[in-house]
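Protein modeling request. Please complete all fields; requests missing the sequence field cannot be processed.
Requester role: graduate student
Desired output: 3D structure, token encoding
Chains: 1
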Amino acid sequence: MIMKYLLLFALLFVAYIVWRNKRIEHGTGERDAATPRPTEMVSCPVCGLHLPRPEAVAGSDGRFYCSPEHRQRAGR
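Delivered output (76 residues):
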């Protein structure tokens, strides 16, 4: 009788391990897969505003500005 329960427990344990490994392989069990990557932030040299680099306006001097007006103001 005890052997039957021991065998059932071992079978359920193996099934759980297989299920968990499949889940991790497909990325559904990992929280890091859904976490977005951080965006590089830049600072406007005119006003000091910090903003994401893709949203910044690039100047001819290699600096990034928050707006075209600040890029023009720095060029003067």
